[in-house]
């Protein structure tokens, strides 16, 4: 559609305006083909697949327009607080990782007791109750016309899934569609509606004169408390509020962490709905290892291991003598490097960290141009041949850029100093 967008703009505008005016949506427009993407675990277990909706281009254009209008209203009225960073412009996973790691560092340094609970919600996007979503939008004061249009898109939401060689159609009665540009915002709105109903008053960690009770990146919610009793009360209240919008906490995957120097109370337990929540000393949060005390080298080595796994996945291509070095360079710079440097903005920079990155990059460079250690080729000549981005320089540049942006952002109003 993009090459003929100038031609289609006017008739599409009239068509979409007629939908808004008449408050009707053709069934075929909201129809989706659902494909299941395998995540991990037992391939025979349907729970290990993620349903993705394949929607028409017209539907995507319409929902993109609706999303922009809803986002403008949400931003103008501060419906989503800084604690919610998921699927939002000028926010990223790094913001919350930085907040969590800084809290862990400072609390450990000054021997301040702090408790975290990493909440896992079962099939969050697929479980949202649609009536709760409409109640949330109305309570936040969204335009009634847009609410009605969103309701029609979901009311007429039919989907089809492949079973063998055939497609089986069914009506979608709950949840928001994964693959729809409107779904992330709708999910954030209904989740925030649930979070706002939790009695946070007086609970959480006091920072810069205000309480920080939780952080959320879409459905990745972290509770922050001063003691185990407060954390249990917050988690119980969140569980009750989440159930009112159709969400359920997965107690088996929910973990809690306590950062404290010296002796630890091993008898502390958290029990929610009869389920004992596991206590951990490290946790993978938004793709980064969170541990107490913090071990930055362990996280860097883990990132390097992830990068090495990508290398072995494309090893045949990267080591092929006939493949142009320019193609190998693109694969490394666009696939391996981002995986290795993910979250580098929050790293504690030391000589050991730099040495780990330097060694890993040199090993990779030697592998892709098939140079052995015994060949006595120096690092400068190897770099001239590969032309790869310098990992250390890239990491430091990203740290510097993030620090500058962070100091200018609204996050400074609630982030730890």
TrEMBL record:
Which CDD domains is this protein grouped with?
Answer: RT_nLTR_like
Q: In this protein, which residues make up the domain named Reverse transcriptase?
A: 18-277
Q: Which InterPro entries match?
A: DNA/RNA_pol_sf, RT_dom
Q: Which Pfam families match?
A: RVT_1 (PF00078)
Top-rank lineage group of the source organism:
Eukaryota
Q: What is this protein's record name?
A: Reverse transcriptase domain-containing protein
User: Can you name the source organism?
Assistant: Ancylostoma ceylanicum
Q: Which gene encodes it?
A: Acey_s0025.g1155
